[in-house]
Amino acid sequence: MEQAQVYRSGNNVGSFGDSSGRVVVHADELPWTDWALPGLRFKLLSINRRSGMFTVMMEIAPNVETDLHHHFGDAHIFVTRGGYAYDHDRIGLGEHNVEIGSIAHKPFFDEDGGEVLVFFHGGISGVDEDGKPTGEYVSADWMYEAANANGAASHLTPPPVEWPEFN
Questions:
Q1: 148 or 5, greater pLDDT
Q2: Domains of the chain, with CATH numbers?
């Protein structure tokens, strides 16, 4: 069985080095990048541009209340440190939560902050006064550009220079 090659030189903290299609990412070696919502930082682990899915570790500052935001697809969240709550429930260490696509919500994070592993199946945006999505769309490519500007995307395949046109 072929082993995935892992390159650890300079900023390259991941690998696309074998025919199995496996990728190994050393998240502990990636720098944190500021995210679209204040008080949150992320480490972009993977992107699937075919589906729009991206995987991130997120670090949340203490006592953060995010802005109201809209999910265009599901977000699967696993809490690795701390926890967060909604008006109706709390999700804590070791728990998994699915935020269903098409919802708008505003979670509140613990006084000690936290860290979560998130699988986004589509991006997010802000919400206007009528509850409709508005503002910048935070997609897989938005995440890549932000991570790349921070020197934290060398393990990821860059987006195509030009997207193909489909007729």
A1: 148
A2: 1-29 (no CATH), 31-149 (2.60.120.10)
